[in-house]
From TrEMBL:
Belongs to the thiolase-like superfamily. Beta-ketoacyl-ACP synthases family. It holds the Pfam family ketoacyl-synt. One of its GO terms (biological process) is fatty acid biosynthetic process. InterPro entries: Beta-ketoacyl_synthase, Ketoacyl_synth_C, Ketoacyl_synth_N, PKS_Beta-ketoAc_synthase_dom, Thiolase-like. Keywords: Acyltransferase, Transferase. GO terms for molecular function: 3-oxoacyl-[acyl-carrier-protein] synthase activity. The keyword Transferase applies. The lineage of its organism: Bacteria, Bacillati, Cyanobacteriota, Cyanophyceae, Pleurocapsales. It comes from Stanieria cyanosphaera (strain ATCC 29371 / PCC 7437). This is Beta-ketoacyl-acyl-carrier-protein synthase I. Residues 1-369 form the Ketosynthase family 3 (KS3) domain. The keyword ATP-binding does not apply. Its EC number is 2.3.1.41.
Amino acid sequence: MNVVVTGIGLLTCLGSLSSTWQNLKEGKSGIRLTQIFPDFPLYPLGMIGENPVKLKALTKLVVEAALKDAGLESPLFDCGVVIGSSRGCQADWEELATTQNYQNWLETLPHQGSVLTANLLNTTAPVLAPMAACATGITAIALGFELIQTGQCQRVIVGAVEAPITKLTLAGFERMGALATTGCYPFDIQREGLVLGEGGAVLILETAELAARRQAKIYGKILGFGLTCDAYHISAPDSDLGSGLLAVKQCLTRSNLKPTEIDYIHAHGTSTILNDAHEAQLIQALFPQSVAVSSTKGATGHTLGASGAIGTAICLTALKEQILPPCVGLTESEFDLDLVSVERQGEIQRVLCFSFGFGGQNAVLALGK
């Protein structure tokens, strides 16, 4: 059964889907040095507004944008929901811990994005709220794809949202030594760490038959996915590539694709020393040198659990426009990869989106024109 994408809702520090895409093509970044908390130093951050965004507000905005883009309106009683998040309502938890006012604590549980979406749609279909660290977004899309493939739904809204600009999140990454101090430069020889970014993306998945019946526009087709876990280390990737390679191979097998048939890889590309080296090694081990590669985190920052969903939205736009986005922030590559340095036109038929998360979570998604 063919599963297609008929709507996208996206919000990053570069704006909506159209604004983010235009800025990406022009090589612009939404990251800026900000001192959001007085007791923290200046850090480069990818913020949507002047103050940290709230998860509920962000979820509502991207869901409504996706429905409008797909030409749909609530209620959608039979629409499945798979909306994930890595940090969830952590900002609210930190506020609760400070004020000790627990009156509305039930509205801050990790599944809040899915619950809010289900309520907006008035759905009675399955509602899921996955959490797989930075692989959450692609995991959510894969679960929604399976709901359709197994006949449980004909339409599912999928994706992830993240509001990670909190004191605890900043302090955690700071103690790990993972935060950049000037900006985000994926695969660059001078890369210095990740930059936290706010954002979210949700997609409307439908059977091709349903989309055809209502004459919906189609961004692309979900071809397959691969999900594995290293169980190797709480934060570092497995140095032998085994589980990461397995996720890619699973995805290719399920999609009936060969490595030589991939035109573009949207890399996880966090701009950390370990991740970029691990990912470059993985790509070199399996794909021809000619495959185009870029990461958009140099423009949006690392949106943690939402990054795979945002990357998927970017891949679908690339398929639709037949343009590859550049690796913003890259000046001098350390790796022998065909990294896209400026927007590139070409015949793009099949693409992969990678996500690798803490705890060894590996997620790969294949998309087709």
